[in-house]
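Task 17 of the worksheet. Students: predict the tertiary structure of the chain below and write it out as structure tokens. Keep your answer in the requested format; marks are given for formatting as well as content.
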Amino acid sequence: MTLLKFPVPLKYLSVVNVFVISLCINDLCTLFFVVLVIVDSYVWRRWRAGEVLCRLNPELTVGFTGCTLWHTALIAVHRYLVVVHGDAYHRMSKRAYTVFVLVAARAVPFLCVLPGIVRGLDGVGYVPKLLRCVLLADQRDRIMLVTTVLTVVPCAVVILCYSGVLL
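Model answer:
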């Protein structure tokens, strides 16, 4: 018995379709585990989700947002490979490539979350002005690491890949 039933058997899905499905799953996780709790705090003008979710919410925000940005970067790499190195792309194992991309798009962001979890989620707190829980200002080094690895690097990958495609 399968939990998910796709209209097309998985063996017929293209790499791009698998990326899109993965992004859909990521978006749903973001919606249910991050956004709904934040919306609740905005509606009630306070945090009602408890201490554990207060500490987890910023970490999940970082993780899921990073997954989205790394998916985007790796889709750009895919497009670069298809357009610029089409022969090499057609010779490579699509299954291995897809597994690598899906694992990397999740592993990199959640490795950035790991230090916060290992330290017991102690760098997170509720900020009344924001009506939400966030990484606190004393986490400056970690915030810079997360910003660099989960925002700057994927953006640079996209720019480099599309420059290679267009130039």
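Marker's comment: The chain has one domain: 49-166. The chain is about 75% helix and 5% strand.
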